[in-house]
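Here's what a typical entry looks like (TonB-dependent receptor):
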Amino acid sequence: MTLYGAASYNEATSNSMAGGNTLSSDNTISAQNFATENTLVEFGLKYIPTDSDWYADGALFSQRRSLRNRDGSNTGIRTEGFESQVFYDAYPYWFSAGYSYINAKYDNSSSSQDSAQVADAFDNSRPDIIVGNNIGAPNYTVFSPSNRQVQGIPEQSISINGSYSINSKWQAGFSGLFTNSYPLDFLATVNIRDQYTLNVNTRYTFTDTTSLRLDINNITNQKNWRPVFEGGYFGATLVFPELPINAKLTLTHNF
């Protein structure tokens, strides 16, 4: 049996200013625009049984960081979480399964969206679709400092990966990802549901320098969604659809 442990601490500061509306009413730059410190504390553990084909590892972490806003200001984010993985490798198979928990909240900081809620995008002329508030969108909204959950980040996810070597030149594999439901906007009026994606792949190696790989993604043709970006500035009114079932063929040659 082999047991590994590791702990790390990292602190970084970046003094940079984005363009845009950065001056306050008295024609000065707010100190909040330079609040870009990033502090990460992490502790990890790895367990390897003696004469075994598998191992397991896990890590606890706590991070305080800043999220750059569109107007050049920064919003504080406090993230705590846990990640773990089990890996099995015994030729011709290998398999891994991972779990992640991320609790991301505003660090007593304010946030903003292009619109306060999804209903702002509609007027009240079509109540059979949605009863809007007739405000219209976008209508830039700043929310008071809080410790609410950061929108656009799933709290829990599960991943799986595996491969089988048919022979010394030909391998076939798969991967999958599950994420639980999470809010898309600050007020949590819209949620992305539980969703998953399954992919398969195969690779053939012609020589030491040339190989051909085929990936077929989203093989169950799930109608999945993703936020525009973390922090959800457009979260109340905009979301991206992920690709339906699709394939990619890649030829690789190393010179």
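Residues 15-19 have pLDDT under 50 and may be disordered.

More examples are in the samples folder.
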